[in-house]
Amino acid sequence: MSTAARKGWLFHAVMAPLTLLWVAPMVFVVLISIRSFDDIAGRGTAALPDSFTLDGFRTAFGEGSMGRALWTSVQVTVPAVLLSLLLSSMAAFALSRYAIPGRRAILLVMLAGNLLPPQILLIPVSRITESLGIYDTLAGLIAIHVGFGLGFYTFVLHGFMRSIPSEVTEAARIDGAGPFSVYARIIMPLCRPSLAALGALATTWIFNDLIWSITVLRTQAKFPVTAALLNLQGGYVSNWNVVAAASIMAAVPTAIVFFAFQRHFVSGLLMGSTK
Amino acid sequence: MVHSELSRRTFLTGIGLAGVGGLGAALLGGCATSSSDSGGGSSATLTLQSSLSDPSPKAALTKVVDGYTKTKVTLNTIAIETFRAQLPTYLNSATPPDVLTWYAGSVARDYASKGFLLDVSDLWTGSGACAGFSPALKELSTGGDGKQIFIPTNYYWWGVFYRKSAFQEWGVQPATTWDEFIALCKALKAKGVAPISMGTGSTPWVASGWFDYLNLRVNGAQFHRDLLAGKHSFDGPEVKAVMEHYRELLPYIDPKGRSYSWQDAVTPLASKKAGMYLIGAFITQSVPKDVVDDIDFFRVPIIDPNVPVAEEAPTDGYFASAKSKNVDGAKELLSYLASAPAQELFIKESASSNLPTSPQVSTTGFSPLVQKGIKLLNESAAITQFFNRDSSDALQSTADTALTKFLDSPGDVNSILTSWQSAAQKVLTS
Amino acid sequence: MWLFLLVPAAIEIGLVFWPALNSFYLSLTKWNGLGAPEQVGLDNYRDLFSDDVFREALGNNVIWAVGFGGLSVAGGLALAVALNKPRRGVGIYRSAIYLPMVFSLAVTGLFWRVQYQPDGTVNTLLGAVGLESLERQWLADPKTALYAVLVAAVWRQVGYVMVLYLAGLKGTDPSLDDASAVDGAGPWQRFWYVTWPQLRGVNTVVFAVTVIDSLRTFDIVWAMTQGGPYHSSELLSTYMFQQGFTFLNLGYASAVAVVIFALAILFIITYLVRTLKEEVA
User: Fold this and answer.
1) Mutate which of C24, C99, C175 to disrupt the A interface (most A C-beta within 10 Å)?
2) Which residues in chain C come in under a pLDDT of 70?
3) Is the confidence at residue B1, as pLDDT, over 50?
4) What is d(CA B362, CA B356) in angstroms, rounded to the nearest whole number?
5) In a domain, C61, yes or no
6) For residue A272, which residues of chain C lie inside 8 Å, CB to CB?
7) What is the pLDDT of residues B272-316, one digit of tens each?
8) C110 vs A240: CB contact, 8 Å cut-off?
9) C254: domain range?
10) What is the CATH number of the domain that holds B275?
């Protein structure tokens, strides 16, 4: 074999088993989701399936209200992502293109907001949302997601925007454009790959969030997918086939988003790239 | 790229100061830790916040609630750990859930002493829904000030569960005394079966099952209760005697159980690879359907015939929020939940071998297993709850640490008990 | 124009910093969630330093930061480099490795718990290659529990880091790489002297993300061992959760949270201040 062909063969020989290791859990979850509860209870979670049933999915959809929960997740994720990107790009714009005093400190402080362990904010946040009247509402949950993510998104967008040469904005300013049009017409379109990448990342985080959902929401009908999934697990007994089926349903949207934005991912999260 | 305006700088500084100033300690403390004022008035719907996320009980409660036609009830089922963490928030809210599920015992009493639970004493007198309940249940539902704050609706028993057909195959019989029990374990081991299954991996509280029972059998219920209240020492001679008996069990406990959750450990029992499991009657929820009728149990063997026989029977039920906006509605819902038909429906649907608290529920329709459970408890001299319900989750955690360490290194029992005592002291005096 | 900064800043202050400062305040109290908190000054911190479990958790966190951080970054980087060149199947490999991030942690935890069981895949594989002596109850043995969970966490995180590095690599200039190859530089030299310096930007993000994630790791440990057996896999985040939400010692839990925050600040801010100083406006 030629060196190139041998290298190719070696590459696949290493990557393929490695990939199988990564895919194994998915296969595991699928196998559990198509088994019956009795099969799992009688032979254990590790055994190969002895039954085939779509009961898990049916129950997840019906009693588990996964359909409604999925819709709720969408209702929360889409506005939260859009608002986060809007606000963080605004802040990044201000911090990167204007010599605001202490801008580095402000940026670091905003990022620091992301460093807090969310668990400890749970009780203060629930009280504050209650006093603001947004406790147990989806609007409150969206607000929390936006607030909590701002620091990180601003940080990344800031790095990206800094690398945009000043000549581009100078030209527009000379033409008389105010800050808002510079923002909207020049900077934002240039940031599109970065925004797409951050958007996909944000979607994954917000969609998969559990802890804020269970803090801000109290009514079961308003639960997004992650909290609904948690509720499928009992204090004593869990129907693992239903949990597995529901997990698959919960994973599908984020997987779709990831694959759709994959192209942008690899061109998006750049900081200080040269042209 | 450079703009700078003095006005912007001052504005930003101003914002910064305002932000920091506004976060004065008093304001902080006040805003986030105080409970808001609740207004008067009533609402047309009720909220029932439930921690029963296990599949069958959840379905059962849904059915029960659907049968309540007087007021519209919103049933929110929350996973137990989340529920436990959010319970203070629920009770402290300006618009709390009206009725909540929970357990009888120290936690309920604690909330009651702080004024968060509705006084439901009128349901326990005269023609109230709970008036006919046993005095033991009334005592369990009474707060420190003598008023009732809890409505018990079902309880279950603990026992040594096994499969009838398996015992027949192996040619063994249930045991009534300790010596018989050890002999039974030996016989099972000789047959290549793990005599005792016990899942203490992600559910370490299961180890407290044997501890509680050995303590009840060796030292009696009063000692057990006093121990959990801090009146005795965990490294005293009585507990050491308990651990001696526990040590006798160790060779017969399935070692793989250290990696299983309690639920995983049911599988060996169901597939006849293990013989017995000391666990609550909720085990019937997690065995395959064709095995349910084969499940039977026997009382934990007697060690000292002079000690009055005590059993563990954790009691579940409901309480209401003192700040509920619809106090009358909440009481009516509680009456409904405590009523015989509601209890009967719940027990039938929940597949969890629960016992009713209402003496008006006819037990003739229950499975033979449940009837045996009722008989067991009726023949007992004293009833306790489980370790954590008789003390606190914090003390339970010290038990988990100590007992799992003991399971792994029984030779260190003395130092383990000493550490347990100091950890327990920390919890009980905090 | 300052509105651009004001609105986001106001939201972050209101919904993040205000509760955060609340937590700092709470760490100076004793509170169980009901009624008013009781002021205890620095007692919580004093208790922390004599708390064996806290010290064990702190030590575990150091192991975790080095292990989880180091392995996920090294693994992610290696995979990114390997999967950067367009080749047959590269897309599939990339997607497969990122896929764990998409699944809920409850199920991931269950999957790994099952693999580590006494009759699970890990032990079976060890037996198959003749290493029976290494078989053990991975999650029940205090000596191995933390590392077993670490493997699961790294497995999950690697895809995420890989994606970040792929993005970074796409921003590197291939002509530089080709030029140095022509000059006779070997692949390792090319990577170290040509590619790596161009990744500085991505490295900042990866470092920040890794430190944040390793200090915040909670769900996967909780799902697999809950910090057991007897606290041997306890991390600061699980200890804080247990204290705060199982025992309702909210003051004490807040003190642990402040420690977590301080550690995160220490790492991130010193690194970032250094990096940002280099990039002069």
Assistant:
1) C99
2) 1-2, 106, 171, 270-272, 274-281
3) no
4) 9
5) yes
6) 200-201, 279
7) 999 999 999 989 888 888 899 999 999 999 999 999 999 999 999
8) yes
9) 41-278
10) 3.40.190.10
CA distance B262 to chain A (A): 8
According to DSSP, the residues that pair with B393 across neighbouring strands are none
| CB contacts < 8 A (A, C) | 242
Q: Is residue C72 part of a domain?
A: yes
- Do C246 and B85 make contact, defined as CB atoms within 8 angstroms? yes
**Domain limits for position B61:** 45-155+315-360
- Contact pairs from chain B to chain C, CB under 8 Å: 104
Q: Do C8 and A15 touch (CB under 8 A)?
A: no
Let me know if residue C18 belongs to a domain. Answer: no
Question: Which position has the higher pLDDT, B33 or B380?
Answer: B380
Question: Does some domain include residue C223?
Answer: yes
Global pTM reads: 0.81
Taking CB atoms and an 8 Å limit, are A197 and C18 in contact across chains?
Answer: no
Give contacts of B 152-171 with A, CB under 8 A.
none
pLDDT at B375 over 80: yes
Residue B34's pLDDT band (cuts 50, 70, 90): very low
Q: Which of residues 290-319 of B touch A (CB under 8 A)?
A: 290-291
Three-state SS annotation for chain C: CCHHHHHHHHHHHHHHHHHHHHHHHHCCEECCCCCCCEECCCHHHHHHHCCHHHHHHHHHHHHHHHHHHHHHHHHHHHHHHHCCCCCCCHHHHHHHHHHHHHCCHHHHHHHHHHHCCCCCHHHHHHHHCCCHHHCCCCCCCCCCHHHHHHHHHHHHHHHHHHHHHHHHHHCCCHHHHHHHHHCCCCHHHHHHHHHHHHCHHHHHHHHHHHHHHHHHCCHHHHHHCCCCCCCCCCCHHHHHHHHHHHCCCHHHHHHHHHHHHHHHHHHHHHHHHHHHHHCCC
Judge whether C200 is closer than 8 Å to chain A, CB to CB: yes
Are residues B390 and B243 both part of a single domain?
yes
Report pLDDT digits (tens) over A37-86: 887 777 776 677 777 888 888 888 877 788 888 899 999 999 999 999 98
Phi, psi angle pair for B157, to nearest 5°: -115, 165
pLDDT of residue A266: 52
The shortest C-alpha distance from C264 to chain B (Å) reads 22
Q: What is the C-alpha R_g of chain B?
A: 25
Distance from CA of C278 to the nearest CA of A (A): 12
For residues B188 and B293, membership in a common domain is answered with yes
- How far does the CA of residue A194 sit from the closest CA of chain C (Å)? 10
Q: Are B291 and B170 within one domain?
A: yes
- CB distance from C261 to chain A under 8 Å? yes
**What domains are defined for chain A?**
72-234+256-268 (1.10.3720.10)
Nearest CB to C248; choose among B15, B88, B259: B88
Q: Is the ipTM of this complex over 0.85?
A: no
Q: What is the pLDDT of residue A273?
A: 38
Q: What is the dihedral of CA C106, C112, C115, C118, to 10 degrees?
A: -90
CB contact under 8 A, C218 and A45: no
**Per-residue pLDDT in tens (0 to 9) along chain A, 275 residues:** 566 666 777 778 888 888 887 888 778 878 888 888 887 777 776 677 777 888 888 888 877 788 888 899 999 999 999 999 988 888 888 887 777 777 777 777 777 777 666 766 777 887 788 778 888 889 989 988 988 888 888 888 887 777 777 787 777 778 877 777 777 777 777 777 778 878 877 888 888 888 788 888 888 888 888 888 877 776 666 777 888 888 888 888 878 887 777 666 555 554 433 33
Helix (H, G, I), strand (E, B) or coil at A120: helix
Q: Are residues B389 and B340 in the same domain?
A: no
Which residues 23-42 in chain B show a CB within 8 A of chain A?
A: 31-33, 36
Give the closest-approach CA distance of A92 to chain B in angstroms. Answer: 14
Q: How far is CA C17 from the centre of its chain?
A: 22
